[in-house]
Amino acid sequence: MQSQSRKTLIALVASLACAAPVWAAVGADEAATLKTELTPLGGEKAANKDGSIPAWTGGFTGKIAGEKEGGRRGDPFKAEKPLYSVTAKNMAQYTDKLSDGVKALLKKYPDSYRLDVYPTHRTAMAPQWVYDNTAKNAVTAKMNGDVPTGAYGGIPFPIPKNGLEAMWNHKLAWRGESWEADLNQYQLTSDGKVVLTTDGLIRQRMPYYFKEETGANYDGVFWEVNLTNSGPPIRAGEMIVGRQNLDEDKSASYVYLTGQRRVRKLPNACCDTPTPATAGLMSFDELSVFSGTTSRFNWKLAGKKEMLIPYNNNRILQVKDSDLVKPYHLNPDHVRWELHRVWVVEATLKDGQRHQAPKSTYYLDEDTWVAALGDRWDAKGDLWKTLWLFNYVMPDAPGTVQQTMGFYDVQTGNAYVANVLNDKPFHHRFTKRWPTDTFTGQGLASQGVR
Asked: Keywords of this protein's UniProt record, alphabetized (predicted)?
């Protein structure tokens, strides 16, 4: 009996270990490379072989001419001209530098879609305290199943060993502590219409990056959002709040609908469920290319490569919404592409799980860890959507910070463009820390007034 009990106990322990594996952090010697050949956030410091990707020398540390803090943003590279353009006619020359989604768009819109490629600038940076925390995380952070532990205030896995760690780097990328943006969002229909779906104010904060904290009392909430709609008229007064937790089962979102005059908790605010923040046209895990639960997928770190990705897109902020947002896709005259090294992460649906996109590939910029592009395949194995995320040089962060995003459906021709800041009196400003009840269901009940 005792022998049988012991065998049962051993089997139970083994099964638990398989269900929730714990992956160890890197050793001190390897972590020390963050001060030598790697940047403080984990990118390669050195230039590539031909110099088309320059060495990282500290990021963008200057000021942008004409830019006023808290107002409209300027373009630090406004005098630059494209080095070359990639079109449907010459794309074969650059095929190894293009994602599958970009190739599909070039073929689908051969007369209007192109990539204007500019000189590469490695503008990414963060405060010193974020660098210090990143170095600590390198030797203390672990994955306990799908939940990162032992990390705070910096990139959790600057030297990733698997795809799951890399994706958490994306989700926990540095973008400031607290900020707001006035924005528009648009649906691009397959018959060429541009439809305003949202005119709103978004307020966000990242408790994971609260500077004065140490992480000792950190409750796991890493990102919070409050979106209030002022238009179009049919959606004026709608509000949505959300709080994402490292333990994804503890994440929660609430919506206030003016017609009902009440707050409702969203029952399934994750994964491929449509989000009210985009009028139901994007799913929760398509925001910022990927922002959903990681537990439904197996994640493979497929390596690093040089790719053309949208980068340093202050350029688009200098024109009107109507000049940028055109039928079928954004106006390529205003979108800046650069050559950067990216981590390639492949996601495949786990057995027993369900998702509209059972296969995806994500391209994470090595300097910021933000996914600049992502491709999704449908259940038939056909390429379905290509997702994208623009970053902007923001010396006041300091850093190169994500904001405008969207997707193109390469099958139907539908598209969505979120967080377009161009027509607004201010683009993206960092603020004093918003109070916690700004992002809770209880707080939302007191904010809804229509």
From this structure: Signal
Would you list the domain boundaries of the chain? Answer: 35-198+284-426
List residues bridging with 339 in a β-sheet: 308
Q: How far lies 245's CA from each of 103, 113, 384, in Å?
A: 35, 38, 29
Q: What residues does 388 pair with on adjacent strands?
A: 373, 406
In sign, the C-alpha dihedral spanning 342, 382, 277, 329 is positive
Q: Tokens standing for 160?
A: 């990733």
- List the one residue out of 131, 177, 138, 144 whose CA is nearest residue 156: 138
User: Nearest to residue 410, comparing CAs of 188, 195, 196?
Assistant: 188
Selection from 253, 291, 254, 288 nearest residue 272 by Cα = 291
User: Over its length of 450 residues, how does the chain's per-residue pLDDT go in tens digits?
Assistant: 444 444 444 444 444 444 445 565 799 999 999 999 999 999 999 999 999 999 999 999 999 998 988 899 999 999 999 999 999 999 999 999 999 999 999 999 999 999 999 999 999 999 999 999 999 999 999 999 999 999 999 999 999 999 999 999 999 999 999 999 999 999 999 999 999 999 999 999 999 999 988 778 899 999 999 999 998 988 888 999 999 999 999 999 999 988 777 899 998 888 999 998 898 999 999 999 999 899 999 999 999 999 999 999 999 999 999 999 999 999 999 999 999 999 999 999 999 999 999 999 999 999 999 999 999 999 999 999 999 999 999 999 999 999 999 999 999 999 999 999 999 999 999 999 999 999 999 888 887 554
How far is Cα 97 from Cα 110, in angstroms, rounded to an integer?
A: 18
- Rounded distance between C-alpha atoms, residue 448 and residue 450, angstroms: 6
> In the structure encoding, which two tokens stand for residue 450, read together?
């229509």
CA distance 315 to 331: 12
Give the C-alpha separation, 103 to 9, whole Å. 53
Helix, strand, coil percentages in the chain from 3-state DSSP, rounded to 5: 20, 30, 45
